[in-house]
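Exercise: predict the structure of this protein bound to pyridoxal-5'-phosphate.
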Amino acid sequence: MINERMLGLGKQPNPIRVQFAYGLQRKAEIGEENVYDLSIGNPSIPAPPAVRERIEQLLEEPPEQLHAYTMAAGAMSARQAVADNLRRRFGIEATANQVYLTAGATAALYIATAAITHPGDEVIVNAPYFTEYKVMAESAQCTCVEVPMRAADFQLDIDALREAVNEKTAAMVINSPNNPVGCVYTEQNIRDLAKMLEEKEAEFGHQIFLISDEPYREITYGAEVPFTANFYRDTIVCYSWAKSLSLPGERIGYIYASDRMENAADVAAAVGGAGRALGFICAPVLFQRVIETCIDEPTNVDAYAENRAILTGIMDDLGYEYIQPDGAFYLWVKALEPDSKAFCDRAKAHDLLLVNSDCFGVPGWARAGYCVSADTIRNSRKAWAALKADYE
Ligand code: PLP
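Solution:
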């Protein structure tokens, strides 16, 4: 018999992908330049040339060697490259044993959650939050508890989180730089969170894991991104090179279960067990080898910075309310009516494709991804203007 939950998920696919699919179809109908698809987080800048060079070099290797399985957690050389990178950049005593390579951040998140939760536990997320967190928590048979970020500054609301943590809390997920808002949590905010979680661990007598989802770590416009594992011992970092190296379709990322955890080796073993149980073993091997040498390639954010300036300029000119993003490549725009879905449908009528905020667990906003060409952003002005006019 078909699993009803899976059937439901399949029939109601991720709304971002629904918009994206519509965008492709619409572009074929009326021409690419007439559709302003700000729906999906596909980086618009190419991967650095070093990626191509490395692939070409790797293709010289004997295929039976190049394409062979690695260990479930990934090739030791690639895991070591990750540990070295973390050590160099953040001063954390990272070891390769605590690194597990994954098929992107999505696999990392699912594995991490499965490794440290039991059915009936609670997983706290900060709203607005990346759409898939809820599916992920529920797939581990946990309850997804949504706590709004502070409305005034989109930082973690420590008081509200303190209220939400209870003896069933197994984990909290944070994401900074943030999708969909673009906010970056300050060091003080992370310190306050760590202090609160430590107090709660002591109160309930068990670990509360912080799952830090960091695919946008390098995409900022001047803001410092504190490395969460330096502030809270029980941290599991989930990372992806989808955005920093513009490799979203190659499905390559990692889990780093902090070496500072008292039971670090057991957590790493549970991560391995969860990877096995979920079938996420041996991340795509060509790209394990690519990141081995490309891990220190700088992320070029110039194009996103330019797009951000153009888009916020349009918002200012037309009188839209929005949150100034400090990182990632999304603009969180206030919908012009309470029903975000209706607002996005109106935008769609002008071939402006946004994602409604209900997908991210809150009403009344919309997400505009500016990881597209600068011309697409510039040309979208008329659609934004027409959308505004609809409400006047
Ligand atoms: N987490 C966040 C916050 C994201 O925005 C995304 C992708 O957009 C992911 C996780 C998934 O990343 P990946 O494509 O590496 O699975």
